[in-house]
Specification:
Layout (H helix, E strand, L loop, with lengths): L6 E4 L3 H13 L13 H10 L5 E8 L2 E11 L2 E8 L8 H12 L4 E6 L3 H9 L3 E6 L4 E6 L2
Parallel strand pairs: 4-5
Antiparallel strand pairs: 1-2, 2-3, 3-4, 5-7, 6-7
Helix pairs in contact: 1-2, 3-4
Bound molecules: coenzyme A.
Length: 148
Amino acid sequence: MGTLMVQAGTVASDADVETLRQIRNSGRQWMTRSTAEISPEQQAAWWTQRNARTCRVWLFRIADTAVGYGLLRLEHARWWCSLAVLPRFQGQGYGRAIYTYLACACDGDTWAEILADNRPSIRACLGAGFDLHAVLDQHALLVYRRNA
Ligand SMILES: CC(C)(COP(=O)(O)OP(=O)(O)OC[C@H]1O[C@@H](n2cnc3c(N)ncnc32)[C@H](O)[C@@H]1OP(=O)(O)O)[C@@H](O)C(=O)NCCC(=O)NCCS
């Protein structure tokens, strides 16, 4: 992943599932679906019922420190990205690296739904090679796509 020294790892333990929850909650106001706080119990239940084929998740670490996560969800035959970087690690290129990693992990095109006022996410995804695909005015939602 370039010179950033950030490593993608699978979510393998209960501690990883909890780390994933904390990173997701740190950026929850920018999520395009549910922005609700996720409790440890909700997170554990979600993880148990997750379909690993249609919902793929990675934690991104520098040495042993988790700085962000990336998730790919197969929905209506499209792979959709979801990601967050912990606030103290933002603005250092990790978001762009995670978008790039997710796009490379997909067989086909990769899709991202981003709120129109989420400038860091838009810049990170453009930097990773995505292009604007559609504007859904009603929700101030922009849809980006990176071709395979
Ligand atoms: C979106 C997010 C993952 C980006 O992670 P990041 O590590 O900060 O991303 P990067 O450092 O790779 O890139 C951020 C880009 O936004 C720019 N940026 C950073 N903060 C900014 C701000 N407040 N306003 C405008 N641009 C900003 C950076 O300059 C950089 O652009 P550049 O590559 O053209 O220089 C991170 O901000 C985050 O977790 N946000 C909360 C959750 C979220 O929004 N997730 C995505 C939902 S679609």
